[in-house]
Amino acid sequence: MVLNKGGHEGFVRRGLGRLGAGYQTLDASRPWIVYWCLNALDLMGAPLGEDLEAGVISFLSHCQDPNGGFAGGPGQLAHLAPTYAAVCALSIVGSPEAYEVIDRPALRSWLLSLKAECGAFCMHHDGEVDTRASYCAVHVASVTGILDDELRRGVGEFVASCQGFDGGIGALPGSEPHGGYTYCGLAAMLLVGSTHLLRMEPLLFWVASRQMRVEGGFQGRTNKLVDGCYSFWQGAVPPMAAWALSHGADSVYEVGTMYAPPQSIAPGEVVEARFVRGGSHLFSQEALQDYILVAAQQPRGGLRDKPERYADYYHTCYNLAGLSVAQHNSDGSLTIVGSPFNLLQPVDPVYAISQNKAIQAVRYFADLGPVM
């Protein structure tokens, strides 16, 4: 089984050009499309190119609100979701010119204006409060070096209140546990150092139970069908939980410590690594790779939810991110299904971009010092 890297690269590169009329419904999600496509290219080890990088920098600079945060498109409302996507995309470009687009003082001020009394965050001014907002806020603050005690306050308590009786995390207290919210909740807890507030054993049991025995992929909720995007949303939870358990339940996540030693591949590089069966992530990494390679790949390029669906940029990004999670073990060994050619760059499960780009961005902004 071979990952069709050439077909997938062509598919996502088309997404960074002129899109068809069918994408008008995503006009408020344009930084997301940029992030999904860039992340797919980066995880496959494909070079972005100077023209593409310059275009991304220019476009996202026009999406930034003068008062902080990024909007879904030029002239739109600043919103945490496209802010997260824009920071991820600029981190993937990874140049000083990309980093300097982000107005850190305005971003911190805007994030504080979204802080709710319960310690959580609103997605935008007068917007909804949920675990997704908490993750997006502390993620962009962590990457850009502005995550301080004021922004951390109450995040852990709010997320813990969203954990259900069966272990999964929902959007709000009392809501149904969901793979996306469970990912957001746990990742936020790692970034603020509050995983001790979670019941980790039932959380892990809930996530492991979402991998379907026949398909090998993950469902997002109980009694739902498998969906390729949960290859990452659910698949990234066990390695994050393992990190928390091994480093101390109140430890703040340190970028670059998920894998030992860090691994990287370059286009055309011959892979020499220790291959193992089984892996270390408390789910069947081989079965998940089977689902992605057999059921989620569209023959002409791009990856999808499930076989009867069409490929799209969202599912291409998160299928590949999930494939990377399933390939890389915490001890530095690899679990590869099919050809060694299938190997992807190691994704950082917390920052949701490649480990190398996450390290580079976090260190760059840390060197700039705090923002007051």
Notes on the structure:
- Residues 3-353 form the Prenyltransferase alpha-alpha toroid domain.
- Belongs to the protein prenyltransferase subunit beta family.
- Heterodimer of an alpha and a beta subunit.
- GO terms for molecular function: protein farnesyltransferase activity; zinc ion binding.
- It catalyses: L-cysteinyl-[protein] + (2E,6E)-farnesyl diphosphate = S-(2E,6E)-farnesyl-L-cysteinyl-[protein] + diphosphate.
- It is built from 16 helices and no strands.
- The termini are far apart.
- α9 packs antiparallel against α10.
- Helices cover 46% and strands 0% of the residues.
- The relative contact order is 0.14.
- The chain has 372 residues and is mostly helical.
- The protein is globular and about 50 Å long.
- It has a single domain (5-259, 272-368), classed as Glycosyltransferase, CATH 1.50.10.
